[in-house]
């Protein structure tokens, strides 16, 4: 699953807001996350991926395990809602 949102926040502010998004998703989906440069690595039961912060965009790349594939729409909606709330 790939989701991209453009922003005009600058990289530092976007990174702070991605932290807020990650906290929201971590509590909702029981995920773990850690920064590696400008990439926020995400890991959880049946989920692996990253959020990449650049000067003008935030890209989410997630791989869902078999059990979570049937919830892809719900997961995508939650991520898109969080991104729209925090990056605009």
Summarize the structure.
By secondary structure, the protein is α+β, with helices and mostly antiparallel strands.
Name the CATH architecture: 2-Layer Sandwich
Rg over CA atoms, rounded to whole Å, is 12 Å
- Helix percent band: 40-55%
Q: Any idea what the shape is?
A: globular
Low-confidence stretches: none
Largest pleated sheet? 5 strands, antiparallel
Mean of pLDDT: 92
DSSP strand content: 35-45%
- Please identify the top-level CATH class: Alpha Beta
Q: What's the count of strands?
A: 5
The end-to-end span amounts to 22 Å
Secondary-structure element pattern, one letter each: EHEEEEHH
Structural class by sheet pairing and helices? alpha+beta
Question: Key features?
Answer:
88 residues, alpha+beta, TATA-Binding Protein, 5-stranded antiparallel β-sheet, 44% helix, globular
């Amino acid at each position: 699953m790939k989701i991209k949102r453009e922003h005009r926040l600058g990289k530092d502010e976007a990174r702070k807001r991605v932290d807020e998004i990650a906290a929201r998703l971590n509590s909702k989906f029981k995920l773990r996350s850690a920064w590696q440069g400008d990439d926020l690595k995400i890991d959880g039961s049946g989920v692996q991926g990253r959020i990449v912060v650049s000067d003008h965009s935030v890209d989410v790349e997630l791989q869902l395990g078999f059990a979570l594939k049937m919830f892809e729409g719900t997961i995508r909606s939650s991520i898109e809602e969080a991104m729209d709330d925090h990056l605009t």
